[in-house]
Amino acid sequence: MHSMYKEEGNPPVSYSTYLKEFNKSGRKFKPPKSDGCDKCDKLKATLASCSDEAEKKQLETSKELHLRKAEKAYALKKEAKKEASKEPEKKRTLVFDLQQCLPTPHLKCKRIYYSRQLYVFNFTIFDNVTGLTYCYMWDQVEGKRGSNEIGSCLLQHILEEIPTGVEELYLFSDCCSGQNRNHVISMMNFVALQEHPTLKKIVHYYLVPGHTFMPEVDSKHSVIENYKKKRLEKVSVPSEWYDAVSNAGKTAACPEGKFKVIHKTEFFELSALAKNELVKRTYCIDKEPFNYLSTHIFSYEKKSIGIVNVKSSFNEDSPYRELSFLRRGVRSDRLPRLKPSLKVLPGNVPISKEKKKDLISLLDYLEVKHHDFYHALPTTDDTADTHPDLTQDEDDIE
């Protein structure tokens, strides 16, 4: 827009001045309706080739309902943030997502494009009340990026960053079943409610697949990507990514930085909690089938640990269904503390021998002090060499 302003022959001003005046105007860019929706694309293609009027009307109705559902999810997020802002001492809203993997080493040489690299993960949480952004970061040898890792980051954040006095917590995320929408995250919420001194209720909202634009965290990831492309010359080892992300959030107006980076090295085996007093369920208490992929709202309460109220619709009038994780004979009010039984997952997750070979071949471009890090990376013969961003998690398409 600044370029268009200059091309139209307006009085010359710098980009920073233009941005300042633009922000004063109160104008905003409307978020995209979709960030790549398979269902929308399929319906659009089917509609384009459909000649039967009755079928076409049915398809248009299906598309309209799908879009309304997506808009309702966005509206609920906006409302939850507004309510939390009114009572910050009692309510909080968190929005979270994983950034695309950060390849290590990050170099400008041509050889890097033909070499397999080590990946660093950045799980980002935004607190709308404080306006703070938290980046929990680790490399692929320290941990995977599955539900145990995501749940461990969330648990640490809730217990360490949600202050005493807060009673209600609202979570918003995408619906990736391999990371967010599964029984492991349910286990995490039960532990959080047991351990936090004042938290009484946690409600987790999963946005509609293909309509998971979350500017609260997506914009932060864009800042990091821009810093990486324009200002970052080299990253030799994972620890330098932690410094780079921290520096990416530093501005003249905020010299201390907008991002709080936490190097996460310990992850709990939360999935193991569903093997004792708690168990996975595929049916609700009403005996009707339960499916995570079609469920969008999970409501947990301290007074009924082990039980969650769920529903697939975002409409306020639609009823909740009760899902119990309690093993037969176990009562919620007699459920022991879950956290003491949690075990820490072993570190040193191996990479493929081929990847390590490629990493060793890049040592000529790195300082000698970093060589030992790469030589010490663990490997196994049967480790699959896949790009985490391209690996299909359990399908999250409804």
Structure description:
With 398 residues, this protein is α/β, with parallel strands linked by helices. The chain is 33% helix and 16% strand. The chain contains ten helices and twelve strands. Strands 1, 2, 3, 4, 5, 6, 7, 8, 9 and 10 form a ten-stranded mixed sheet that branches. The protein has a two-stranded parallel ribbon with strand order 11-12. α3 (38-49) packs antiparallel against α4 (53-86) and α5 packs parallel to α6. The longest helix is centred in the N-terminal third of the chain and has 34 residues, at 53-86. The two termini are 38 Å apart. The relative contact order is 0.14. The model is unreliable at 30-34 and 392-398 (pLDDT under 50). It comes from Frankliniella fusca. Residues 377-398 are annotated as: Disordered. This is Ribonuclease Y. Keywords: Coiled coil. Residues 40-87 form a coiled coil.
Task: Briefly summarize what is shown.
Residues 377-398 are annotated as: Disordered. The protein is an alpha/beta fold.
Radius of gyration: 23 Å
How many helix segments? 10
Low-pLDDT residue spans: 30-34, 392-398
Helix content: 25-40%
How many strands, what sense, and barrel or not for the largest sheet? 10 strands, mixed
Question: Looking at the structure, what is the overall shape?
Answer: globular
The ordered H/E elements are: HHHHEEEEHEHEHHEEEEEHHE
Keywords: Coiled coil
Protein name: Ribonuclease Y
